[in-house]
Amino acid sequence: MELLEINWFTGNMVIHLDTFFPNTIAKAKQLLKLVRQWCDDETKADLAEYFKKKILEIDAEIAKIKQIYPNTKVGSKEKKQCETEFKRLQRLENKYVKYLAFLNEGRC
Question: pLDDT tens digits, residue range 53-92?
């Protein structure tokens, strides 16, 4: 699923998922509220699968960093880059987990 189409009585919206996400939790909540209100169960399931796929991709990137990190020297630029990237990926993964929770349960 690359495009998300939301149709309602007076119009519609098409969202390119890879462009919109990741986004702030507030903007994601606004969009996901519309999804829960106007989309069918199949679309909701597809969007949930999209989020799960992104979480798995991030987990794979984290695993790569975990392999590289022990082999880096203390205080090196490479070690600092690993730490920075690891923290960024953790934040990103947490966002996708929150998106999924809000889609499924209506809360973040």
Answer: 999 999 999 999 999 888 888 889 999 999 999 999 999 9
Alpha-carbon distance values, 65 to 78, 80, 96 (Å): 11, 11, 19
Which pair of tokens denotes residue 75? 């205080």
Structure tokens at 68: 């590289």
pTM value surpassing 0.85: yes
Helices 77-105 and 41-68: angle between axes, nearest 10 degrees = 160
**Measured distance CA(40)–CA(76) in Å, rounded:** 51
The answer to whether the CB of 98 falls within 8 A of the CB of 25 is: yes
Q: CB neighbours (10 Å) of residue 106?
A: 11
CATH topology of domain 3-105: Methane Monooxygenase Hydroxylase; Chain G, domain 1 (1.20.58)
Q: Are 52 and 60 in contact (CB under 8 A)?
A: no
Domains of the chain, residue spans: 3-105
